[in-house]
Write a structure and sequence with these properties.
Layout: H1 11-21, E1 28-33, E2 39-44, E3 47-52, E4 55-60, H2 72-79, E5 82-86, H3 93-99, H4 109-113, E6 117-118, E7 127-128, E8 133-144, E9 153-164, H5 177-180, E10 182-185, E11 191-194, H6 218-221, H7 228-235, H8 243-251, H9 253-259, H10 265-281, H11 285-302
Antiparallel strand pairs: 1-2, 1-5, 3-4, 4-9, 5-8, 6-7, 8-9, 10-11
Helix pairs in contact: 8-11, 10-11
Length: 303
């Protein structure tokens, strides 16, 4: 791997490298207001939720790279410490990008980008009516990370309310990940879209300790057919197969005929790994693990 010393890089070089590597990032499309009632709308991708109890979000507003000055969003929350964080769906990504142009402070980016303003329930800034989800926030603290160009300023926000478009809720009232169609920021001009085949589920390990990949048979860990993800799925199970389960595999018609075949050990291993991979794909992980440990004994006998 090539190593980069960040002190040897320019600000643009550091930004390109870091923003490309830490991606995709959610976008805080932040609407704020100053004491004169001037509204600002601007996107920031150094953003995330960091706590649910208490509910807290953080986004960073960097100083302008060319002169080190503070951006309008930062100036606004210094005056009125409130912000509506609008989430960004694919349907609004081009308008969102347009709003990031360097407009003077008295220009309303809602109007420039063609968004409709809606009144928040508990804070002064308006929210983007087209947004799928909106967080109404009060600024808890601002942490400056430096005084030079591109230095970040972490804006820590307490979330008071969350608005969700009703069509994005499922029958149980939960926000449906497959419907929200969010976009994420990547490096350079790249974005990604969290929808369709780009989103997938990974089952969380249970509270009981998983067996881990280190407990899998060597023939599984060294397989050319099974992927690292396959091994991760097998290793996520919480118990090794019992002797009874292995005996059941051994006495099944499918594997009795397999044992009595004239195949070589290497041929048998390939077929066994294909069987295990297919079981994993069918969400029959427990059976796949039982076959793996049954095969361990069989292959050791064939050596």
């Amino acid at each position: 791997m090539k190593t980069f010393l960040l002190n040897d890089l320019t600000n643009p070089q550091r930004h390109q490298l870091m923003a490309s590597a830490v991606a995709p990032r959610p976008i805080a499309f932040a609407s704020t207001i100053d004491k004169q009632g001037r509204v600002n709308l601007s996107p920031f991708s150094f953003f995330n939720i960091v706590s649910t109890n208490p509910p807290v979000a953080v986004f960073s507003v960097s100083r302008r790279g060319f002169d080190g000055s503070l951006k309008d969003t930062h100036l606004n929350v210094l005056e009125i410490p409130e912000v509506a964080i609008n989430m960004v769906s694919y349907a609004m990504v081009q308008q969102m990008s347009l709003s990031s142009s360097q407009y003077p402070r008295d220009v309303n980016e809602f109007l420039k980008a063609g968004f409709n303003m809606s009144k928040c329930d508990g804070i002064q800034p308006p929210y983007v009516a087209e947004a799928p989800v909106v967080f109404e926030c009060r600024v808890r603290e601002i942490i400056s990370l430096g005084g030079t160009g591109a230095a970040g300023n972490m804006i820590i926000c307490d979330i008071d309310r969350i608005k969700v478009r009703e069509e994005l809720l499922d029958s149980a009232g939960k926000l449906d990940t497959t419907k929200i169609d969010l976009v994420g920021r990547m490096g350079d001009n790249w974005y990604c879209r969290a929808s369709g085949e780009a989103v997938f589920q990974v089952t969380k390990p249970s509270r009981d300790p998983a067996i881990g990949i280190d407990q899998l048979p060597d023939h599984i860990k060294k397989s050319d057919l099974l992927s690292a993800n396959d091994l991760g799925i097998l290793g996520s199970l919480t118990s090794l197969p019992t002797e009874e389960a292995i005996e059941t595999i051994d006495n099944s018609e499918e594997f009795i005929s397999f044992k009595n075949s004239s195949r070589s050990a290497s041929e048998m291993q390939i077929i066994i790994h294909q069987q295990i991979k297919s079981r994993i794909a069918l969400d029959q992980t427990k059976t796949a693990l039982e076959i793996a440990f049954w095969a361990k004994r069989l292959l050791e006998k064939e050596k």
